[in-house]
Structure to design on (526 residues):
């Protein structure tokens, strides 16, 4: 029996047990040095859309990321605008992204900055294909490690037609795109 | 314990066997097929309607291509007397109009662009500087670097003037024949009505038309601008559109070349179209449609996003030459005989 304001022996044992079990779970879930995580190689990705539909999470742990040094900050952006967009503006009918996860911000004529809203992005890669075909390929997919639940056998990797998923060291965690050596400077 | 049916009789072993087989079958069926749905149509990037070209609008037909024995072809040029020059990794190869190899010159590196002067000197854009070869392929000069940001994507020669497109600095550099920088052309200047080049990626072409007027592509504005050698803007036209009449994406047209009648041939990245425009900038028709260069570039399982159209030239017979990276070949297109 505990006196009010003091921790009794039974409460102490309960708290210690909870702490031990919680710590054990955290220890199991946390990525230890030397462990491997799943990641998507953007050079192999074929933008099939299965990252959006085959992840065990909904929405998917795969998100579009943006390499600003590669981006051309184009007005007529293949990753933001529908191929046949009547106008180059933020009208919903002109947007390529099915969930409006890309924000277009005017910088100076004729340049615009594009930002991905990760909370909205479903990882469908529609913008990745548009950017790769008509632009510089600055938009690409990555598994967000803070969202990924690290399945032993990644459900998307099983469905990926290009075998673009691979296990990489947890310390590396991402396969980022960088500006090609000798490529022209962007704004 | 024996399991019995309602009448109290034990269930026969064969029933258990059939039930077991059915259960195993169901498990195998469920495990062997991926029951998750495929991505819906709204997740697919669709440009097929813009890839389709009415065959009656294709005005050229393909001839036997030239397949240089040089890896990684990057640049193409023609000379007034009809020679065809192709540059790739560590080599420049020269062909006659009949496609037979005339000469082969060893170089160091992979040129980003190539031009030939009227007297046969070969100008190689080497990312940040120009190297000059004598007509016989012997090295003549290496011009100074244009700086760390420089990225030469096109070079054109006309008489004593050499023009090089620098995508990194978004400017055209005019040289004399000795390699001295004479003029920078195309820097934004509102007082002179010069809009400035918008070059999001290394697709920035320059050329001369049949009258000797200098033209530069402004790829981010989806058109062309003509300039005097003094740097004064003469005229400009832009066609931003994914429709056949226009140019789409970040940087198109990717390459241009004029024919002897003043008509303009263009290539594009994204949609690998080769088109022909009249002197008054109206679309005449197609030299080649996207399907000519790859079967299904927009297919769901294609990771080939880079354009296969690496360079473009028109030869002395007004044939259109396209450097195809996928086939590492010079594709040749000749205008169909009029009926």
């Amino acid at each position: 029996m505990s006196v009010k304001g003091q921790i009794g022996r039974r409460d102490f044992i309960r708290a210690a047990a909870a702490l031990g079990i919680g710590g054990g779970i955290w220890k199991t879930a946390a990525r230890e040095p030397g462990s491997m995580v799943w990641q998507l190689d953007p050079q192999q990705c074929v933008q099939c859309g299965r990252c959006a539909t085959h992840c065990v999470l909904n929405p998917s742990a795969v998100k579009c990321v943006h390499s600003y040094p590669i981006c051309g900050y184009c007005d007529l952006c293949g990753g933001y605008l529908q191929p046949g967009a009547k106008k180059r503006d933020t009208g919903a009918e002109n947007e390529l992204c099915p969930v409006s996860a890309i924000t277009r911000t005017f910088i100076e004529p004729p340049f615009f900055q594009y930002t991905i809203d990760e909370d909205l992005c479903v990882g469908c890669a529609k913008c990745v294909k548009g950017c790769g075909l008509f632009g510089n390929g600055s938009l690409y997919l990555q598994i967000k490690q803070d969202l990924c639940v690290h399945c032993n056998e990644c459900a998307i990797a099983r469905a990926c037609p290009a075998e673009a998923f691979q296990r990489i060291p947890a310390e590396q965690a991402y396969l980022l795109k960088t500006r090609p050596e000798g490529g022209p400077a962007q704004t | 314990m024996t399991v019995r049916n309602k009448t109290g009789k034990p269930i026969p072993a064969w029933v258990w066997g059939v039930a077991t087989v059915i259960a195993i079958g169901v498990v195998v069926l469920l495990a062997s097929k991926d029951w998750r749905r495929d991505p819906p149509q709204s997740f697919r990037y669709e440009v097929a309607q813009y890839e389709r070209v009415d065959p009656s609008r294709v005005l050229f037909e393909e001839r036997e291509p030239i397949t240089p024995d040089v890896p990684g072809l990057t640049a193409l040029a023609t000379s007034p007397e009809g020679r065809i020059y192709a540059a790739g990794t560590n080599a420049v190869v020269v062909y006659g109009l009949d496609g037979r190899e005339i000469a082969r010159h060893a170089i160091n590196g992979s040129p980003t662009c190539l031009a030939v002067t009227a007297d046969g000197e070969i100008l190689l854009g080497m990312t940040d500087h120009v190297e000059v070869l004598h007509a016989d392929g012997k090295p003549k000069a290496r011009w100074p670097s244009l700086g760390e940001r420089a990225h030469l994507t096109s070079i054109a020669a006309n008489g004593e003037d050499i023009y090089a497109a620098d995508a990194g600095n978004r400017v055209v550099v005019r040289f004399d024949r000795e390699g001295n920088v004479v003029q920078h052309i195309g820097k934004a200047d509102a007082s002179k009505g010069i809009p400035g080049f918008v070059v999001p990626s290394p697709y920035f072409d320059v050329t001369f038309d049949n009258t000797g007027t200098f033209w530069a592509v402004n790829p981010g504005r989806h058109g062309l601008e003509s300039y005097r050698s003094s740097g004064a803007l003469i005229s400009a036209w832009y066609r931003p559109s994914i429709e056949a009449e226009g140019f789409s994406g970040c940087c198109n047209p990717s390459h241009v070349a004029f024919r002897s009648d003043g008509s303009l041939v263009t290539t594009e990245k994204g949609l690998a179209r080769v088109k022909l425009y009249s002197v008054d900038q109206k679309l005449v028709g197609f030299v080649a449609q996207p399907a000519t260069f790859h079967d299904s570039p927009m297919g769901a399982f294609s990771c080939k996003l880079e354009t296969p159209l690496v360079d473009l030239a028109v030869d002395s017979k007004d044939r259109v030459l396209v450097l195809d990276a996928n086939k590492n070949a010079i594709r040749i297109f000749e205008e169909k005989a009029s009926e």
